[in-house]
């Protein structure tokens, strides 16, 4: 939550995030990117893969997970 707020991360963007394998597998305390943590926590899943560019398209696995995630975060953004 703190990482998302600190970097003013756009929650709408998260539902259609695109990233590469290196980012998905990188979790460290110095990172400013919340996507690896959220992906490895299971809130985001791989929705597609562009073989030509090696880019993964991420999204919430279903509407219920997305709504629960956003509901959890809303008090922190208000």
Question: How is this structure best described in words?
Answer:
The structure is a single chain. This protein has 78 residues and is α+β, with helices and mostly antiparallel strands. It has one domain (2-77). It has five helices and three strands; from the N terminus they run ααβααββα. Strands 1-3-2 form a three-stranded antiparallel β-sheet. The two termini are 13 Å apart. The relative contact order is 0.21.
Assign a percent range to the helix content: 40-55%
Tally of separate helices: 5
Order of helices and strands: HHEHHEEH
| Major beta sheet, strand line-up | 1-3-2
Content-based structural category: alpha+beta
Tell me briefly what this model is.
The protein is an alpha+beta fold. The chain contains five helices and three strands; from the N terminus they run H-H-E-H-H-E-E-H.
